[in-house]
């Protein structure tokens, strides 16, 4: 009796169909909820669209108006660069210091990690932003504490010079996710390196700069990129705590983009702003990656 070998091409085809069937919900969601909105926003950035009628093609007019005749755009850009430039280093430094402290803890490490991570879980919520607004309001808890100890109170959210700093403090307070990543990196550094350097007479400070920092640079790179992106995309604190005021001193870029889209109903202009921000983030990410060639060290490096 002659046995007919199975058709390998047919079996392979069936497996491919089955595989695509399993991932089809993801593919449908990805293309309909991610790819299509991205491409549609790119199209809208070249149109005049108020969300009521049909988009009217105007070419590069939105981009031209943005860079040449919109001072509020430049104001929001300036505020955002200052916010990200100050808040991101503060969060990273604070996260690293807390991670270094936790790395020395032996007992109840899980509890400490959970408690310190909580601000990152709830910190970006509207509820916490409302709490922050109440805390630093004219009659808030912070001014009450100052008055109780005999110090002068201040309008922290009403003063253009201090309002942005309240948002920076809120951003720095949400250090939990970066702290956990730093802690994981610290736990992966072999203790033998520290033991060998101790024999050679290196103290804790010298060990930190010649062992901890170099071996932690890949983690620093990752955290820096993620926090820079998050800093440029900050929205909720500015929207809820100060609503961009006073006198636009806390008008972050994404908040202004939101105002153009949903208060002025200028969706084409807002879409153009979104693509400008995408380019800015891409440039900063590329620059950070390029600079990492000179300061990031990997265990596999043979240099």
Please characterize this protein's 3D structure.
The N and C termini lie far apart (66 Å). The protein has two domains: 15-57, no CATH class; 66-293, MetI-like fold, CATH 1.10.3720.10. A hairpin with a 7-residue loop joins β1 and β2. Strands 1-2 form a two-stranded antiparallel sheet. The mean pLDDT is 87. The protein is mainly α and 303 residues long. The radius of gyration is 26 Å and the shape is globular. The protein has helices at residues 8-44, 61-68, 71-104, 109-122, 126-135, 141-148, 160-173, 176-187, 191-199, 204-232, 236-242, 253-262, 267-295; strands at residues 47-48, 56-57.
Topology:
Blueprint: H1 8-44, E1 47-48, E2 56-57, H2 61-68, H3 71-104, H4 109-122, H5 126-135, H6 141-148, H7 160-173, H8 176-187, H9 191-199, H10 204-232, H11 236-242, H12 253-262, H13 267-295
Short description:
By secondary structure, this protein is mainly alpha-helical.
Which properties best describe this structure?
single chain; 303 residues; mainly alpha; MetI-like fold; 2 domains; two-stranded antiparallel ribbon
Number of helices: 13
Number of strand elements: 2
What is the total domain count? 2
Q: SSE order, as H and E?
A: HEEHHHHHHHHHHHH
CATH architecture title of the largest domain? Orthogonal Bundle
What is the H level of CATH, i.e. the homologous superfamily of the largest domain? MetI-like
Assess the beta-strand content as a share of residues: under 5%
Which strand order spans the largest sheet, edge to edge or round the barrel? Answer: 1-2
Report low-confidence residues grouped into runs of 5 or more: none
The whole-angstrom Rg is: 26 Å
CATH-defined topology of the largest domain:
MetI-like fold
Q: Shape from CA axes? A: globular
Helix content: over 70%
Which structural class do you get from the secondary structure elements? mainly alpha
What distance separates the N and C termini?
66 Å
CATH class of the largest domain: Mainly Alpha
Major sheet summary line: 2 strands, antiparallel
Average of pLDDT: 87
């Amino acid at each position: 009796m002659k046995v007919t070998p199975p058709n390998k091409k047919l079996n392979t085809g069936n497996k491919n169909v089955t595989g695509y069937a399993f991932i089809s919900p993801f593919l449908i969601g990805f293309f309909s909820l991610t790819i299509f909105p991205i491409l549609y926003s790119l199209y809208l950035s070249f149109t005049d669209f108020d969300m009521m009628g049909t988009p009217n093609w105007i070419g590069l007019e939105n981009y031209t108006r943005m860079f040449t005749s919109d001072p509020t755009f430049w104001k929001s850009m300036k505020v955002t660069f200052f916010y990200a430039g100050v808040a991101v280093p503060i969060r990273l430094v604070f996260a690293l210091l807390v991670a270094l402290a936790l790395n020395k803890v032996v007992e109840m490490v899980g509890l400490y990690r959970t408690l310190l991570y909580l601000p990152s879980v709830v910190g970006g919520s509207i509820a916490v932003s409302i709490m922050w607004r109440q805390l630093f309001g004219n009659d808030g808890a912070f001014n009450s504490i100052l008055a109780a100890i005999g110090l002068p109170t201040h309008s922290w959210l009403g003063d253009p010079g201090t309002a942005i700093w309240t948002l920076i403090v809120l951003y720095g307070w949400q250090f939990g996710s970066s702290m956990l990543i730093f802690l994981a990196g610290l736990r992966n550094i072999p203790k033998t390196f520290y033991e060998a350097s101790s024999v050679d007479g290196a103290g804790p400070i010298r060990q930190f700069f010649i062992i901890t920092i170099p071996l932690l640079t890949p983690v620093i790179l990752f955290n820096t990129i993620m926090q820079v992106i998050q800093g440029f995309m900050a929205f909720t604190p500015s929207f809820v705590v100060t609503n961009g005021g006073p006198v636009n001193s806390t008008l972050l870029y994404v908040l202004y983009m939101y105002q153009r889209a949903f208060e002025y109903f200028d969706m084409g202009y807002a879409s153009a702003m979104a693509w400008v921000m995408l380019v800015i983030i891409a440039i900063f990410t590329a620059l950070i990656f390029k600079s990492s060639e000179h300061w990031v060290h990997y265990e596999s490096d043979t240099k």
